[in-house]
Amino acid sequence: MVKRLRDLQPKNILDIATGTADVALELAVLEPKTIIGLDLSEKMLAIGRQKIQKKGLFALIDLEKGDSENLRFHDNSFDAITVAFGVRNFEHLEKGLSEMYRVLKPGGKIVVLEFSRPHVFPVRQVYDFYFRYFCPWWGKRVSKDASAYKYLYESVVAFPEGKEFLNIAARCGFGALTSERVTLGIVSLYTGIK
């Protein structure tokens, strides 16, 4: 994700579904003026703030609670927007992407990293078994709650990946769209320009 933004040299970055700020911290190497991390979970943001404090990056990275489908920012506010493993959780994918388009500056770039389903034998079979059966079983043993781990698999299967995702992003206004499968197809990296 960071490599896809290096040539752009973004000054203002929005990291949606920032969680515990892992991506926001990685983006700091781009030396932007500001990074805003946005997430619905205050508990995750609290962990992220501790990480930011340990790295001494409070002047650069600001975390706030917010909804990706109703962004509080003005039109054309950011040079770049990132989302890592979060768009599949948008309640209304097109609304979230349209909001990202609205707050992105003309010429700005989105970079989305999301789970996908591998297509290569035997990776696909191992992947399906691991996420469908092993993860919920392990989750029940560790956290006493298999439902979150079952949801992970279901959300990945339901997500419109590849060309389908690119078509949705194009309907929301994005151009120069690309999709790249990485990590044996377990993850896809999408980019687009306003």
Class of secondary structure makeup = alpha/beta
Q: Mean of residue pLDDT?
A: 92
User: Helicity range of the residues?
Assistant: 40-55%
CATH class of the largest domain: Alpha Beta
Quickly count the domains: 2
Q: So what's the overall shape?
A: globular
Q: Which runs of at least 5 residues are low in confidence (pLDDT < 50)?
A: none
The first-to-last residue Cα distance is: 17 Å
CATH-defined fold name of the largest domain: Rossmann fold
**CATH superfamily placement of the largest domain:** Vaccinia Virus protein VP39
SS summary, helix count: 7
Which radius of gyration do the C-alpha atoms yield? Answer: 17 Å
Oligomer: single chain
- Strand composition percent: 25-35%
Strand order of the largest sheet: 3-2-1-4-5-7-6
Query: How many β-strands, per DSSP?
Result: 7
CATH architecture of the largest domain: 3-Layer(aba) Sandwich
List the helices and strands in order.
Answer: HEHEHEEHEHHHEE
What does the largest sheet look like? 7 strands, mixed
